[in-house]
Specification:
The structure holds two protein chains of two kinds.
Chain A (H helix, E strand, L loop, with lengths): L2 E5 L2 E5 L4 E8 L5 E7 L5 E7 L5 E3 L5 E5 L4 E6 L8 E8 L5 E2 L3 E6 L1
Parallel strand pairs in A: 2-11
Antiparallel strand pairs in A: 1-3, 3-8, 4-5, 4-9, 6-7, 7-8, 9-10, 9-11
Chain B lengths: L3 E4 L2 E4 L4 E8 L5 E7 L6 E7 L2 E5 L6 E7 L2 E7 L7 E8 L10 E2 L3 E5 L1
Classes of the chains: A mainly beta, B mainly beta.
C-alpha cells in the first residue's frame, strides 16, 4: 500500500526566505506524487506532480519539487517566500483511484 | 464554468434535518469522490464512484448517503447528523483508465455545521 509522511505540521519562514516542506513516501510500485495547496475555506489546488518523467518538477507560483528514489522523498521548495504563500500544503501519492494524502503542513510567512 | 462546482458552500443544519450536498464536474472525468476534512485531522476518503458505480465506501455511517446519477453529478444526502459531523466536505473528480495518473481535481468544498 502507498502512504506519505509529511515532516512538520507547522513551518514558519520569513518573507523572502527559502521554503522547504518535507514529504517522504512509501510505495510498492513506481509512484505518482503530488503537492496540493489549500487556502482557508477553499478546496485543494494542484501545485505540481511527478509522473515518472523529469525528477525535478516545476509547478505554479514558483514552487518546485525533486523526486529522489534513493531517499523516497519528494520535498517541496521555493527560493523566496511570499506572504501569499501562507496556506496548508498536502503531499499525496497514488496509483490511480487510490490517492493517499499526508496530514498536511501549515506554512506561515512572517513579514 | 469552473472544473468542479460544489453547492452550497455553507450549510447549517440541526440534527433532525435532511439536506443534500451537490457536486458537478465539467471535466469529462469518470470518477468522483467525497472527502471529509475535519480540523486537525487528515483528509478522509468517504466514497468513490467510477462510471456511476460505487467502488469504495470507507466505513461511513449510514446517515451519509451518496448518489451518483451520472458521471458528472454527485450528491451527498445528509440526515440525523451529529455535531462531530461538522466539517468541510470536498468533492473531487479524476480521469481513470490506462495511463491515468489519478490526479484529483477538487471543488471549493461545502462547509457543514451541525447544531
Amino acid at each position: 500500500a502507498q502512504s506519505v509522511t509529511q515532516l512538520g505540521s507547522h513551518v514558519s519562514v520569513s518573507e523572502g526566505a527559502l521554503v522547504l516542506l518535507r514529504c517522504n513516501y512509501s510505495s510498492s510500485v513506481p509512484p505518482y506524487l503530488f503537492w496540493y495547496v489549500q487556502y482557508p475555506n477553499q478546496g485543494l489546488q494542484l501545485l505540481l506532480k511527478y509522473t515518472s518523467a523529469a525528477t525535478l518538477v516545476k509547478g505554479i507560483n514558483g514552487f518546485e519539487a525533486e523526486f529522489k528514489k534513493s531517499e523516497t522523498s519528494f520535498h517541496l521548495t521555493k527560493p523566496s517566500a511570499h506572504m501569499s504563500d501562507a496556506a496548508e500544503y498536502f503531499c499525496a501519492v497514488t496509483p490511480a483511484n487510490d490517492m493517499r494524502f499526508g496530514a498536511g503542513t501549515r506554512l506561515t510567512v512572517k513579514p | 464554468e469552473t472544473g468542479v462546482t460544489q453547492t452550497p458552500r455553507h450549510l447549517v443544519m440541526g440534527m433532525t434535518n435532511k439536506k443534500s450536498l451537490k457536486c458537478e464536474q465539467h471535466l469529462g472525468h469518470n470518477a468522483m469522490y467525497w472527502y471529509k476534512q475535519s480540523a486537525k485531522k487528515p483528509l478522509e476518503l468517504m466514497f468513490v464512484y467510477n462510471f456511476k458505480e460505487q467502488t469504495e465506501n470507507n466505513s461511513v455511517p449510514s446517515r451519509f448517503s451518496p448518489e451518483c446519477p451520472n458521471s458528472s453529478h454527485l450528491f451527498l444526502h445528509l440526515h440525523t447528523l451529529q455535531p462531530e459531523d461538522s466539517a468541510l466536505y470536498l468533492c473531487a473528480s479524476s480521469a481513470t483508465g490506462t495511463g491515468g495518473t489519478g490526479e484529483l481535481f477538487f471543488g471549493e468544498g461545502s462547509r457543514l455545521t451541525v447544531l
